[in-house]
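Task: fold both queries, return tokens.
Query 1:
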Amino acid sequence: MNRSKLTRGLLLVSLMALTACAGVNPKIYEGSQPPLVLEQYFLGQTRAWGMFQDRSGELKRSFEVDINGRMVNGELVMTEDFVYNDGEKSQRIWRIKRLDANHYEGRADDVIGVAKGVVHGRALNWTYTLALPVGEQTYHVQFDDWMYLQPDGVLLNRARMSKFGIELGQVTLSFRKLP
């Protein structure tokens, strides 16, 4: 193989790798219905059912989450109470602020720095780093979290969890407003 073909081949592989990492642009959902407004959807009581699958697709853990959302000083405060299938319980309290028509930022005690959210139409993309305790250690893992509001009020959520760019697994949730 001549040097020119090898160089073009390497460039093509590099370009494919870069575009694969680029992900979906949330703007493609602009105008999609119904529009997702976090501070409306999560106000009051919501329940979620979820699972974690490792990168091979094997179900490792399932859980239920009861969520209580309220507005405090212009921020959505969401208290999430988790119960896992092995009996473990945990709680996360999100403080979410709308920055403009399409951007949110969120904070929680186990989130490193600030979670960034971009919403367009029915879809929201959250990106953040979570301090995840596993046994005696805590790992900082990245989440690329997508939420999609359905016409019947169900909110579907899929998150890719990674470390150093290597996918560790996926979290899938389904949310439903409670009366």
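Query 1 returned. Query 2:
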Amino acid sequence: MLDLADRHARHRQNVLLVAVGAYIGVSLMANVMSVRIVLLGPWAIDAGTFTYPLTFTLRDVVHKAGGRTAARVTIVTGAALNLVMVAAFWVTANLPADQTVGPQTEFGNLLIPVARIVVASIVAQVVAELIDTEVYHRVMERLGPRHQWARVVASNAVSIPTDSVLFAIIAFAGDVPTAALVQIMATNVGLKAATTALTWPLIYTVREPGDPEDPAANAPVPVP
């Protein structure tokens, strides 16, 4: 039978694999969804914002489960796979279509515009999430295993506005009215902050040596 240390190591490895896969999958999905600008109530927003904010907390889980190097490798790998996705879309859209099926121009019309969005996403993602990595690491060094939620909140508080402003400017400036661009930035920040508020407990899916707390441990103890 596995002892406790082995079970914790296996659990950490499993969480790391799931978090890395989810991070990259959500990143790819968000970049395709961002082609469409939708209304959230009165606010304009790129649809990728519905899934992309998950990457920030997922990055923090990768950092906790695998360390700072694993987080950096995951960020760079995600950026590289987004570039591969754009190249695959471009090649597919430019290959001769089987005319017995039809011209099939919809594929290129829909997915070729992803290129600018992916470039914007890669620049914003790499800059913002590398900043996220450094802030997370500094908070972790300062607080140790205490108040792990603060790592997520502090790192995301810096990286979310950085990502939102960079992405909106690179992806949409010149193509959408200025008012809509500002709305996209503001709504991005708000929705990403709300996602952080909902997902920060994921950091406790990974135990680390010396953990003195988790959400259950901090729950009030009933008084008889």
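Both queries returned. Flag for query 2: Residues 4-33 form the longest helix (30 residues).
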